[in-house]
Amino acid sequence: MTGFVAVMFAFVVVAFLVLMLRWTYGTGKVSGPAPDGKSSDFGLLHEVAVAASAGEANALRAVLSDANIRSTTSDAGRGRVRVLVFAADLQKARALVGPGTY
């Protein structure tokens, strides 16, 4: 009888731990940008342009790099690519990129 009680107690303890871990880590929701490219929250970065292709975005990044402006890209959906810069460089970057691209 004592062996049966010990096994049942161990089972209850493991079940309790499983439930606690499931409650703590098992929300199933992942935070972060939307995978479909519809998110507009890029933290410290701001959109300076939306290019029609990755090649066009890389060309814009090269222009910005020549002016010592750090930039990166992000998927904008439907084959388009966002070019992002820090807030301190936003006005200078928009002047270099030109109108109609953002």
List the helices and strands and how they pair.
Elements: H1 2-25, E1 45-51, H2 54-66, E2 71-77, E3 80-86, H3 90-97
Antiparallel strand pairs: 1-3, 2-3
Structural notes for this entry:
The longest helix is centred in the first third of the chain and has 24 residues, at 2-25. The protein has helices at 2-25, 54-66, 90-97; strands spanning 45-51, 71-77, 80-86. Helix content is 44%, strand content 21%. The chain contains 3 helices and 3 strands; from the N terminus they run H-E-H-E-E-H. The chain has a 3-stranded antiparallel sheet, covered by helices on one side. It is α+β, with helices and mostly antiparallel strands.
Descriptive key words:
single chain, 102 residues, alpha+beta, 3-stranded antiparallel beta sheet, 3 strands, 44% helix
SSE string, helices as H and strands as E:
HEHEEH
Please give the number of β-strands.
3
Largest sheet data: 3 strands, antiparallel
The mean pLDDT is 84
Order of strands, main sheet, comes to 1-3-2
| Low-pLDDT regions | none
Query: What quaternary form is this?
Result: single chain
Distance between the termini: 76 Å
What is the approximate shape?
A: rod-shaped
The level of helicity is: 40-55%
What is the SS-derived class?
A: alpha+beta
- Proportion of β residues? 15-25%
Radius of gyration: 25 Å
